[in-house]
Amino acid sequence: MDKQFVEKFKLQLLDLQSELKEISATGKEASGTVELDQSRLGRLSRMDALQGQAMSQAINQRRDLELKKISAALQRIESDDYGYCVKCDEAIAIKRLELDPAAPLCIDCAEAAESK
């Protein structure tokens, strides 16, 4: 893969990683323990708080997964394996990497993984 493309994707990955880490720092507060003091909150308010907590935890899990994907992509850049499918070792299309610079699989392997 052309070094210019790799450098461009590396910068995108580093920017995205930084942005997600900043968001993660503020997002952890919303997934904290919900206080169940009945004198302060009504039953429906507690249910809303628990639902909000669950949604926040799911968002944090997706964010953590995305950070792991970005970290793995940056490691592939350092080892000169970036741009190649981790499963079949074929080149990943530039357009696919433009949409998701952390993509570890070519489109064929990604579709095969989804159909399982």
Describe this structure in a few short sentences:
The protein has helices at 3-27, 43-78, 94-99, 107-115.
User: What's the SSE pattern?
Assistant: HHHH
Helix content: 55-70%
Mean pLDDT: 87
Assembly classification: single chain
Strand content: under 5%
Structural class: mainly alpha
Number of strands: 0
Give the low-pLDDT segments: none
Largest beta-sheet characterization: none
Global Rg: 19 Å
What is the terminal-to-terminal distance? 30 Å
What is the global morphology? Answer: elongated
H/I helix tally: 4
Characterize the structure shown.
It is built from four helices and no strands. With 116 residues, the protein is an all-alpha fold. Helix 1 packs antiparallel against helix 2 (43-78). The protein starts with a helix and ends with a helix.
Task: Summarize the topology.
Layout: H1 3-27, H2 43-78, H3 94-99, H4 107-115
Helix pairs in contact: 1-2
Which terms would index this structure?
116 residues, mainly alpha
